[in-house]
Amino acid sequence: MARGLRTAALGSAVVALSLAGCVSGGAVPGDEPVVGGARLTPLDRLEAVHVAGGLPADVEGPSSVLAELRYGHGRLMAYVRGDSCGIVATPEADAGAVPVHLVARRPGGGEGSGSLPAGPYTTASAAGGPRTWASLLCGENAMVIEYAFGGEDAPQQVRGPVTVIRPGGRAETSRIIVGDPEVRRLIEERIVTG
Fold it and tell me: Which residues are within 8 A (CB) of 57 and not within 5 positions of it... i.e. 6 or more apart?
């Protein structure tokens, strides 16, 4: 009987050590998430871009600008601050529109929508005039922005880890994906294929 207990105890110890070895040598809980076999980089670990003039004064606390898009009428900046994502769209003075500033907190446990890969996401939206509006989906690993400025111009300059899609039938709207290359590819595939 004692021999059977020693064998069972030894077997349990081997299983426990094997599990510990798996954790220390591979996927450690809390590491970057894996979606579709790809390891994703959280937004707050992406490299920031330097922008002339920086963010407006009403953006309090340390922030990192991840993307800057320049349009003929102004620019849009996407940033992260703490547990939030934000965008600031600033039209030129003669553009006839007011600035748009959106902030959405990244979702906590059980919150948000999972309609796109690498989610869940929380959302915010605002209008900056009769033909100007923006919406923001904010997640741990990506931001997805829709921005319309009433004209049909595409961004003339794009900087940062960003992909811009012009959805069919809505030439005045840019869909902007901010994230690492793999998450942008996954989200773009979902948007394009529906």
Answer: none
Average pLDDT over residues 143-155: 81
Which tokens go with 120?
A: 């869940």
Pair 151, 129: CB distance under 8 Å: no
One-letter identity of residue 5? L
Are 66 and 160 a contacting pair, CB within 8 Å? Answer: yes
What would the DSSP string read from start to end of 35-102? ETTEE---GGGSPP---TT-S-TTS-S--EEEEEEEETTEEEEEEEETTEEEEEEEE-GGGS---EEE
The terminus-to-terminus CA distance of the chain in angstroms comes to 63
Residue 47 · residue 64 · CB < 8 Å: no
Long-range contacts of 184-189 (CB under 8 A, 24+ apart): 184/142, 186/35, 186/36, 186/38, 186/117, 186/118, 187/116, 187/117, 187/118, 187/142, 187/144, 188/163
pLDDT in tens, 113-145: 888 999 999 999 998 777 788 999 999 999 999
- Tens digit of pLDDT for each residue in 66-95? 999 998 778 899 999 999 999 998 877 655
Torsion sign, CA atoms 68, 175, 162, 44:
positive
Give the pLDDT score at 34: 58
Please give the structure tokens belonging to residue 37.
């076999």
